Amino acid sequence: MSKKQKKVCIQFSGGSDSSLTAYRMSLEFDQVHLLTFRHFGQMNIENSRKSYSILNEKFPDKFQHSITDVSDLFSKIYNRHYIKNLFKYRTIQMQFVCFACQACFHVQTIMYCLKNGISDVRDGANTEYEEASPMQIEIVKKEIKKLYADYAIIHDSPVYYEHQTDRADHQLFRLGLRPQPDIKDDMNMYKKYQGYCRFMSGGVLFLNYWKRCKGFPQKVQLKMREHWIEEVDFLKKLIDGSCAG
């Protein structure tokens, strides 16, 4: 009897954390689908191909890499209830750019899995940006897992707790997958392997403002979770609509 082939999807920016996740999953799965997403807020996302080529050289034919435009999904999620959210959440609305970005990645990933018969998803989320990056906040991640579970998909972030003890870029260097250990501290090297967001400066500006506010980061994190719960039924409609089509 032939063994059923095991497949996994990785949300793959090409950065250190998603690359380390992809490497580890290549040791567990027969096929690793690297899903890179692009929208109008991102720049040079094609750099992820370099990270893919390094992995593919180490494990030939193990990986499949695709770059998918999700600008339409991004706009639908971000612009939905924009004015209402602006009054309700005020300056946190700026960080909802990150919310919409990452939410459309999850929606597109679930669509891909349903189309290709894949029931395992991993990403490179970690505590490095847990303060305010919506989908890297632990209480939000628990809600994200529920969405995947509704479609019989297991979702996990294998390197989530490792940033403080053994950074992904250091591990990749030891594995021979990067030429130096401190990629995250060298902006030129950082951009060499992945794209970056044109909205990042605005997010950082408001993050610095929130850090001075009482109740940070818990208050902001709870607001992010609240917003996810408000939107999750809409995200399901997007997924179900694509399946019906």
Can you give me a brief rundown of this structure?
The chain has 245 residues and is of the alpha/beta class. Helices cover 53% and strands 12% of the residues.
Report on this model:
The protein is α/β, with parallel strands linked by helices and 245 residues long. The protein has one domain (7-244): 3-Layer(aba) Sandwich (Rossmann fold), CATH 3.40.50. Helices cover 53% and strands 12% of the residues. It is built from ten helices and seven strands. Helix 1 (16-26) links the parallel strand 1 (7-11) and strand 2 (31-38). The longest helix is centred in the last third of the chain and has 27 residues, at 218-244. The chain starts with 6 loop residues before the first strand and ends with a helix.
Write the layout of secondary structure elements.
Elements: E1 7-11, H1 16-26, E2 31-38, E3 42-43, H2 48-58, E4 63-69, H3 71-79, H4 82-89, H5 92-116, E5 120-122, H6 138-150, E6 154-156, H7 168-174, H8 187-193, E7 196-197, H9 200-210, H10 218-244
Parallel strand pairs: 1-2, 1-5, 2-4, 5-6
Antiparallel strand pairs: 3-7
Helix pairs in contact: 1-7, 3-5, 5-9, 5-10, 6-10
- The global form is globular
Domain module tally: 1
CATH class: Alpha Beta
Poorly predicted sequence stretches spanning 5 or more consecutive residues: none
Provide the helix percentage: 40-55%
How many β-strands, per DSSP?
A: 7
CA-CA gap between termini: 35 Å
The CATH architecture assignment turns out to be 3-Layer(aba) Sandwich
Q: Could you name the CATH topology? A: Rossmann fold
Q: Mind describing the biggest β-sheet?
A: 5 strands, parallel
Number of helices, counting only DSSP H or I runs of 4 residues or more: 10
Let me know the average pLDDT: 89
| Beta strand % | 5-15%
Q: What is the string of helix and strand elements?
A: EHEEHEHHHEHEHHEHH
Q: Give the strand order, joined by hyphens, for the main sheet.
A: 4-2-1-5-6
| CATH H-level superfamily | HUPs
